[in-house]
Amino acid sequence: MNELQKKDLKYIWHPCSQMKDYETLPPIIIERGNGVYLYDNEGKEYIDIVSSWWCNLLGHCNPKINEYIKNQLDSLEHVIFANFSHEPAIQLCEELSKIIPSGLKKFNFSDNGSAAVECALKMAFQYQYQTGNTKKTKFMCLTEGYHGETIGALSVGSMDLYAKIYKPMLMDTIHIEAPECYRCPYGKCRDNCQCECFEDAKKKFEKYADSVCAMIVEPLLQGSAGMRIYPPLYLKKLRSLCDKYNVLLIADEIATGFGRTGKMFAFDHAEVSPDIMCISKGLTGGYMPMAITITTDEIYNAFYADYNEGKAFMHSHTYSGNPLGCSAALAVQKILREDNILENASQNAVYLHNKLTNALKEHKNVGEIRHIGLINAIELVEDKTSKAGFDSKLRIGYQIYKKALEYGLILRPLGNVLYFNPPLIINKEEIDRSVDICTRAINDILSC
Ligand SMILES: *Cc1c(COP(=O)(O)O)cnc(C)c1O
């Protein structure tokens, strides 16, 4: 351990970590970044294949984003957003209006994904209350969902890993069995099913919808659950069911937004719109903490009244609408528009998936390599026929992660699932290197 690493451990409690692990794998001190690469203070190079927790969209130190932020910095760094505004925020909403699912019109700013989810939940609850549905107080969500780690967001999440210990603190929510396409209980596969698994949603809506104000989903991709991918038809069906029972549909597009799934938003695949959409992560290209909860005129209008009716949405965050975040987001929009980012990414997505499949599909422990957009997830199993997973105590994913780090690839796993979720600007050569390192690391730990 070098001096800086020792000092780090003296002061810093890192997120989502058993700090004791850092005795054997000390924090890697990153000095600079460039494109998909990060460099530590000893000059070692790493490919950031997880986009620094899925937020880096267009590479590190992107010259255009840097320029936009620097320009903004010289005129205004921040201003109170109640009763005040600024051009970057206004322009950004105008730009986003052109690319978001139709019907979404009003933008409520916050500063991280969990906050955007909390905002959506409160908005949905208050909308129902103010339109006379005072009994609609609960939320529905999918099992294995993840929506952030504040108390409200944890309540509509269902991953024991994050939520179990806090259960006594959480809201009572209704969980619908999520699609599990790799181990489909109906024996179907993703591209030829009718979402037979939607049955549980129907049952739960019938039983509980009278008490439910909204349903929240991670569209098409349950990220933290291990990049579980399900078909767009499920969202279409959910849209009809929500309409039938007057339940608002909240899209958590925090991980899926801005081209991650091959289209601008995951909901675009299903050709339906949610009532409320949360975006964050890729919004500023991974530069600044910013999030937006976007909703329809119908919902907005239920809050619009004379002050003394008490219908306003009394919800705020100090850094709402931060101008530096907005300017970064404006640069991202300009690049997405002008540099054919999504077109290039979808070509490279085909290349990446073929490459990974050729390298790994015969491996005895590779159960499935599923993909959407540039996202590819490798589910490791003990036995391919039974699809039985490894005991989580073996920490197979973590061991492979450590090997890959040695070789210069940041392959941070989700349990027994390894995944690629690279910046959209990754090129073929960088893909080749990443697949090569990933394959070597897997073979080192699980010899083939
Ligand atoms: C990351 C994430 C969140 C939480 O965002 P934070 O900024 O980490 O609070 C919520 N939902 C999804 C789907 C995410 O991937």
Description:
With 448 residues, this protein is an alpha/beta fold. The chain folds into two domains: 3-61 and 340-445, Aspartate Aminotransferase, domain 1, CATH 3.90.1150.10; 67-338, Type I PLP-dependent aspartate aminotransferase-like (Major domain) (Aspartate Aminotransferase, domain 2, 3-Layer(aba) Sandwich). It is 36% helix and 17% strand. The protein is built from 15 helices and 16 strands. The chain has helices at residues 3-11, 51-54, 63-73, 87-97, 113-130, 151-155, 160-163, 199-208, 232-244, 267-270, 297-301, 323-338, 341-360, 396-407, 428-445, and strands spanning 30-34, 37-40, 45-47, 104-110, 138-142, 174-176, 212-217, 221-222, 228-229, 248-252, 276-279, 291-296, 366-372, 375-383, 388-389, 417-420. Strands 4-12-11-10-7-5-6 form a seven-stranded mixed beta sheet, sandwiched between helices. Strands 13, 14, 15 and 16 form a four-stranded antiparallel beta sheet that branches. A three-stranded antiparallel beta sheet has the order 1-2-3, with no helix packed on it. Strand 14 and strand 15 (388-389) form a beta hairpin. Helix 3 runs antiparallel to helix 12. The chain is globular and about 65 Å long. The chain starts with a helix and ends with a helix. The mean pLDDT is 97. The protein binds pyridoxal-5'-phosphate. Pyridoxal-5'-phosphate binds at residues 112-114, 117, 146-148, 218, 223, 252, 254-255, 280.
